[in-house]
Amino acid sequence: MQILKTQDYHTIAKLNKSVHDLHVHLYPDLFKPYDQELVLSYMKEMMKNPSFIFLLALDEALGPAGYAWIEFINYPESPFNYAYSAIFIRQISVEPSKKQQGYGSALMNFITRLGKDSGANRIELDYWGANQEADRFYQKHGFIKDRIFISKRI
């Protein structure tokens, strides 16, 4: 198992399909069906942003198993809060056939090391409330709920 930084937007776009399909299933009124060409173009554009890092989890024998898209954020001090630095996990996903094999944990451990090495104080993320698998995974990795985002359909 290996975690690498990548600019391979083709592979990231392909790996995005399973997590996107889950979101479409959970929230069909919010998420469009997966469109590989649009996602490919979008990921290519996102990789131009120097604040974004894309990570690839590789099975040495079988190829890509998952990915993470992270962002380094420096929050300035304000009258309300202290300044701090964080890594924000924009997306993280492991292929369904590779789950429960340590790839998600390997990605999370790599992200934690990157954060420590860069001087970040926190790792932040958000996820959709109906995604119970994500909730269990993040709890397992020591995440706590600091801020709750809610919505109301009108």
TrEMBL record:
Gene3D superfamilies reported for this sequence: 3.40.630.30
Record's InterPro entries? Acyl_CoA_acyltransferase, GNAT_dom
- Origin superkingdom: Bacteria
Q: Which GO terms describe its molecular function?
A: acyltransferase activity, transferring groups other than amino-acyl groups
List each copy of the N-acetyltransferase domain by range: 10-154
Identify this protein by name. Answer: N-acetyltransferase domain-containing protein
Tell me the organism: Paraliobacillus quinghaiensis
